[in-house]
Design a protein that fits this description.
With 181 residues, this protein is an alpha+beta fold. The chain is 33% helix and 28% strand. The protein has helices at 5-15, 62-74, 130-137, 146-158, 165-179; strands at residues 21-31, 36-43, 50-51, 54-56, 77-80, 88-92, 101-111, 122-128. Strands 1, 2, 3, 4, 5, 6, 7 and 8 form an eight-stranded mixed β-sheet that branches.
Length: 181
């Protein structure tokens, strides 16, 4: 009996595929009435540390996955700035200790009450202003994944946060060199 294309593809994936696996991360701008900033999470599961809300891609379009993950890990409703144009796309073989992950990072405006779903991966979700985010990006050992720290630096540079400019340029140079053939 001849195998279907799907069976052949599934067999290849099970035996040979070494990634990248797709993920989505989301930078949620939020104001709780006292402070303006962005939302981070503290991960409940390995790798431990702080991270952007997000997760491994499920069987849905990436923008929808980002919104779903943000709702689960923060409790917020996130309206993506540009669903068809992520802020960043990053993939590095060693960026995530679990496997080779390629992520699309979206930006969004959040609304609602900050309250993660206790069945999900966020131990807690919290709001940081730009100065606090910058301070966190200066400590590599706080982050669950190095790519999340780099996303923070690149985001700060994107919004014109002057202190992040030099490191953001360095990150861009390094990424550009890695991608040259």
């Amino acid at each position: 009996m001849k195998q279907s294309e799907q069976q052949v593809f599934s067999g290849f994936m099970n035996r040979s595929y070494k990634g990248p696996y797709t993920a989505t991360d989301i930078i949620i701008r939020y104001n709780d009435g006292k402070k303006d900033g962005v939302i981070l999470i503290e991960r409940l599961n390995e790798p431990y540390g702080i991270a952007w809300p997000g997760g491994i891609g499920e069987r849905m379009p990436n923008p929808r996955n980002a919104v779903k993950e943000s709702r689960e890990e923060t409790g917020l409703v996130a309206i993506l700035d540009e669903p068809l144009r992520p802020f960043l796309a990053l993939s590095g073989i060693d960026d995530d200790p679990r496997d080779f992950i390629s992520t699309n990072v979206y930006t969004a405006q959040g609304s609602g009450i900050l309250m993660p779903d206790p069945k999900e991966d966020a131990k807690r979700a919290f709001l940081v202003d730009h100065d606090e985010l910058y301070a966190l990006t200066q400590s590599k050992n706080l982050w669950a994944m190095e790519r999340h720290r780099r996303v923070g630096v690149l985001y700060l540079d994107h919004i014109g946060f002057e202190k992040a400019k030099g490191e953001a340029a360095s990150i861009r140079r390094k990424i550009t060199q890695e991608y040259r053939l």
